[in-house]
Write a structure and sequence with these properties.
4-stranded antiparallel sheet; disordered C terminus; 33% strand
Length: 260
């Protein structure tokens, strides 16, 4: 496993000091036949093929059983427009997926489905097929994950590994994103366009390690607010870029997001 190079020092330091993990005292969430599917889109404001994929991801974000995240990469910034949402961290996550898969495929728009399969992010038929394939591949290893606010804390409950599962170790990640972000693009291949991005990621930070047993994580919501995200996703993932074993989303209401 390569060193995790794509988390910011600020977020990592804050969360490392404040997160608390302990075996769950209450009953873990009831397991289901299959948890939600995670779609991660790697996109760029400087990519002329990306706007249809950005729009398609927004449609998927409204579908039940689907969780979506958008990562703007920085490797097209030299083409005349600096992507305002891009970061080296997002590009590194995409490269890490390619390294773990072993195919080296890094492109935009690229959708990674539950960490196990990649397809063109603008091809709905390919995404649907990948969703079915991922669900079948991971149906016996999925782990229930839930998120909720409890006072001033964000509580993440992670269930135990299903009986017979050979995947009993994973990293718990917290992706901090905006619900939506609209950008007017002045230069580059998409000049003159105004594009709305659904769930653009600002931070993706490891917050705990899972060893196959039920556990609970508690994070202070006030510290998460300072990072600037109102859409949060907890990911249970094998290492840094393996299969997604479970995921859950939490969206702060406008009144909560604006509170001190």
């Amino acid at each position: 496993m390569r060193p995790l190079t794509f988390l910011s020092f600020r977020a990592a330091a804050a969360l490392a000091l404040l997160w608390l993990a302990a075996p769950a005292q209450a009953e873990p969430p009831e397991p289901t036949a299959s948890g939600p599917i995670l779609l991660e889109l790697f996109t760029s404001q400087g990519c002329s093929s990306c706007p249809p994929a950005d729009a398609l991801l927004a449609e998927y974000s409204d579908k039940p059983g689907i969780i979506t995240l958008s990562y703007s990469v920085d490797y097209w910034n030299y083409l005349g427009w600096h992507d305002t949402l891009s970061s080296p961290a997002n590009s590194e996550r995409q490269r890490e997926y390619a390294r773990v898969r072993g195919d080296g495929r890094v492109y935009t728009p690229q959708v990674v489905v539950d960490g196990v399969q990649h397809v063109n992010g603008g091809n709905e038929a390919a995404i649907e097929m990948a969703i079915r394939n991922a669900a079948k591949r991971l149906q016996n290893v999925k782990v229930p994950v839930t998120m909720r606010a409890e006072g001033n804390s964000l509580v993440i409950d992670i269930g135990a590994a299903p009986e017979g599962s050979d995947m009993r170790e994973g990293t718990v990640w917290l992706a901090i994103a905006k619900d939506k972000e609209t950008v007017a693009i002045a230069r580059g291949e998409n000049r003159g366009k105004t594009i709305t991005y659904s769930h653009p990621v600002r931070e993706c930070t490891p917050i705990g390690m899972w060893k196959g047993e039920a556990m609970t994580l508690r994070l202070p919501l006030k510290d998460l607010r300072t990072i600037g995200g109102d859409f949060l996703v907890a990911l249970l993932q094998v290492e840094s870029a393996g299969p997604i074993l479970g995921a859950a989303e939490y969206q702060r209401q406008a009144s909560a997001a604006n509170s001190p």
